[in-house]
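If you are new to this repository, start here. Below is one unmodified record pulled from the training split, so you can see the exact layout before writing a loader.
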Amino acid sequence: MPESRRPVAESVRAAVPQAERVLAWLAARKDVERILRIPLGGLPSERDERLAQMAEALRATAQGLGPSAAAVWAGVPEHLLRQWLERDPEFASAVRAASALAAAQRLDLG
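And here is the target side for that same chain:
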């Protein structure tokens, strides 16, 4: 009989604190960004926010993350990231270059 691929309960329990720290860090990152933007004249426009999210997706791709993970890192739904890639040829080109850079540096994280 083949071995089960389900995680062992103990390994899941051990991973919970790390997952909680990651989620807390992601939430804190948004709070810090919001606080830092106030002295700069308030909250960013929708365009500014979109460009910041695109930059985060690009950065995540350059670090070896695939589209799904890059969307999570950028804080956008994956289908929105895919729309940007389809509708913005310059962004798509930048993402391909970032992916090639990550591959050249052997940073394939998935």
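Two things worth knowing about this chain: The chain has a mean pLDDT of 81. The chain is about 75% helix and 0% strand.
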